[in-house]
Amino acid sequence: MSSSLTAVSPDSNILAVYTPSSKDTNSSGSGTSSSSKIIIKCYDAKVSLGALKYTLSASTKQTAAVVDGILFASPRTLLASTGCGNNNGNGAKIFIFDLVRGVHAHTIDIPSGMHLQSIDAKDEYVYALVKKDGKSLVLKYDIGSDSTPKLVKKI
């Protein structure tokens, strides 16, 4: 089981925490393997006890998907990645959460055959460091508009 991940918003108002669960319990009470849902809890960092502000969730459509990175793209946008370092080059995703509405807004699917290494964000752009055929590439996505994120450049 991987460890918990945390991120602090650029304005230091929100603390996001992802804690993977090893088992989920279904209605009959028996355990099943890891859920296909990502759950991230966001706390008000201005309150000394860190009151829960909201809970974000997204369906991964994968069994046992593990979040391996979270970071704030802006005070209004949180990113979560799955599949970093995945050796088969399939299934890596970047989930985009809109914190104003408290919802999973979009998902960026990393192209098949590309191995996601890490993510970063600045000025409404997401940068995904990937490897393909032994070469490193940076994929730059525009997430600034309300429409689907668009690949704007391969660097």
Structure write-up:
The chain has 155 residues and is mostly beta strands. Helices cover 0% and strands 55% of the residues. The protein has strands at residues 5-8, 14-18, 24-25, 31-32, 37-44, 52-59, 67-74, 77-82, 93-98, 103-109, 115-122, 125-132, 135-142, 150-154. The strands form four sheets. It has a four-stranded antiparallel β-sheet with strand order 1-2-5-6, with no helix packed on it. A four-stranded antiparallel β-sheet has the order 7-8-9-10, with no helix packed on it. A four-stranded antiparallel β-sheet has the order 11-12-13-14, with no helix packed on it. A hairpin with a 4-residue loop joins strand 9 and strand 10. The protein is globular, with a radius of gyration of 16 Å.
Structure in a nutshell:
This protein is mainly β and 155 residues long. The chain has no helices and 14 strands.
Q: Estimate what percentage of residues fall within beta strands.
A: over 45%
- The coarse silhouette is globular
Helical residues, percent = under 10%
The helix count comes to 0
Largest sheet: 4 strands, antiparallel
Secondary-structure class: mainly beta
How would you state the average pLDDT, rounded? 84
For the secondary structure, the number of strands is 14
Strand order across the largest sheet: 1-2-5-6
Keyword list:
155 residues; four-stranded antiparallel β-sheet; mainly beta; globular
Task: Walk me through the topology.
Elements: E1 5-8, E2 14-18, E3 24-25, E4 31-32, E5 37-44, E6 52-59, E7 67-74, E8 77-82, E9 93-98, E10 103-109, E11 115-122, E12 125-132, E13 135-142, E14 150-154
